[in-house]
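Severity: low
Component: inverse-folding endpoint
Summary: output formatting inconsistent between runs
Steps to reproduce: submit the following structure tokens with default settings.
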């Protein structure tokens, strides 16, 4: 009688790339996801999951840390994101599945690291949806203020921020969940419309803000020094997560090996340029000392410059649409990550069931939507943003390492895109991610440690026994 494999053996076993590609084509129990997304949809998913979060929600918390140099913080975070985006592009072209970085690490470093990466992705996606939704309440309140109304704190803030429940955040997640249920193509078109609205919104803001631009607002450039700029970059990295959401659509793309690299690289370039432009315009129009985490900063700037409350109404409605786009696409990515993990037996099978009628994981979407709704209603934004950043940084670092490992183990593997200046780019990607992770606070690391311990317990109690590779 053969003995059960040791824990070390299980943690190190890798899933062949050919098997990952075959599963993407065949689906779960012969029920694949529907391939309906072209390069335009994929790019809009990536932009939709990313653009707007840092500018509309986190900017007010980053400016007090970096001062006028906040635009430099955006550059640092953008470079770190771009380095990882190039690695994502190569892996997405080589391993076009819904598992994203989880699947990439499974193919290169084994089940143990894959579980760590997948668990980080659960933290990244689910918590970031909640964090972005929490920020929406500020803009809902700005909309009501135009009519002389005000959303009571008890209904617009979680217990930790002096309220009882963040009702707008919870409502936004529920709406996104309902939009995802009919299918990827339908929700992609809704997302595309919302992305176009928020690009127009940010361009409008830049035009208004530059009309009141004052170069003196940039002195002193970095009042908190390099440490403040680095701390702000770590927090703003949160606003770049999401471009990897396109890689979770690998099984619903018409031509994933060609289109995914294009969508990932194109979207991160567009997003970085817009973030820097808006940050410079915002500081030029308003002294950095007047920024606060407790207000919708861009709306305040537009109202102060134009003196027209009705502009605040239009801008706030547009901001809610922009945030809704992030919630929609990141929630989509979370369900696809869990679908891949369920296929591998590491989480319960219910997350991997695909409806024959809609071609979507309905039960998965409902479960994730309900859990994220509860979190967004009850947990403060600051804690969510930092927790999301650390999970993202670890996942991105692992993708950069995956590129290096796969180049070494399978140099002849058919790749539709190759990272330039290999191995310099993925090595720099790892170093940037580690640098930003180190600058996060001790409390964030403690929370992350607790999260990883919980993940280890879950793997030993469930994943190890149900793994399909066992």
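Observed output (run 2 of 3):
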């Amino acid at each position: 009688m053969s003995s059960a494999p040791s824990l070390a053996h299980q943690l190190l076993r890798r899933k062949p790339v050919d098997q990952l590609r075959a599963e993407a084509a065949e689906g779960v129990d012969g029920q694949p996801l529907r391939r309906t997304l072209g390069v335009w949809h994929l790019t809009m998913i990536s932009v939709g999951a990313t653009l707007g979060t840092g500018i509309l929600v986190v900017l007010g918390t980053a400016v007090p840390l970096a001062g006028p140099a906040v635009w430099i913080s955006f550059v640092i975070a953008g470079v770190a994101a771009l380095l990882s985006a190039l690695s994502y592009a190569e892996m997405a072209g080589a391993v076009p599945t819904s598992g994203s970085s989880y699947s990439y690490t499974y193919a290169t470093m084994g089940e143990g690291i894959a579980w760590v990466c997948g668990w980080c992705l659960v933290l990244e996606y689910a918590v970031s949806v909640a964090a972005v939704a929490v920020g929406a309440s500020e803009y809902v309140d700005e909309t009501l203020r135009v009519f002389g109304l005000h959303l009571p704190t008890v209904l617009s803030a979680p217990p930790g921020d002096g309220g009882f429940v963040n009702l707008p955040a919870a409502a936004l997640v529920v709406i996104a969940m309902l939009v995802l249920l009919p299918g990827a193509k339908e929700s992609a078109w809704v997302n595309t419309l919302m992305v176009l609205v928020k690009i127009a919104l940010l361009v409008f803001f830049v035009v208004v803000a530059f009309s009141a631009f004052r170069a003196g607002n940039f002195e002193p450039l970095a009042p908190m020094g390099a440490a403040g700029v680095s701390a702000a970059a770590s927090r703003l990295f949160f606003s770049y997560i999401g471009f990897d959401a396109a890689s979770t659509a690998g099984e619903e793309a018409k031509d994933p090996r060609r289109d995914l690299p294009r969508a990932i690289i194109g979207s991160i370039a567009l997003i970085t340029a817009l973030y820097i432009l808006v940050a410079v315009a915002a500081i030029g129009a308003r002294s950095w000392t007047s920024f606060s985490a407790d207000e919708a900063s861009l709306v305040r700037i537009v109202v102060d410059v134009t003196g027209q409350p009705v502009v605040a109404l239009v801008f706030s409605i547009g901001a809610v649409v922009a945030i809704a786009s992030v919630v929609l696409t990141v929630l989509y990515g979370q369900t696809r990550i869990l679908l891949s993990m369920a296929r591998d037996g590491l989480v319960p099978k219910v997350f991997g069931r695909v409806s024959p009628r809609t071609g979507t994981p309905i039960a998965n979407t409902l479960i994730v939507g309900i859990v994220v709704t509860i979190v967004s209603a009850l947990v403060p934004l600051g804690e969510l943003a930092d927790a999301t950043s650390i999970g993202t940084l670890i996942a991105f670092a692992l993708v950069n390492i995956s590129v290096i490992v796969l180049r070494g183990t399978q140099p002849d593997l058919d790749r539709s895109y190759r990272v330039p200046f290999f191995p310099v780019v993925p090595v720099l990607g790892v170093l940037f991610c580690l640098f930003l992770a180190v600058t996060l606070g001790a409390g964030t690391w403690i929370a992350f440690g607790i999260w990883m311990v919980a993940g280890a317990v879950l793997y030993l109690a469930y994943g190890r026994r149900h793994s399909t590779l066992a």
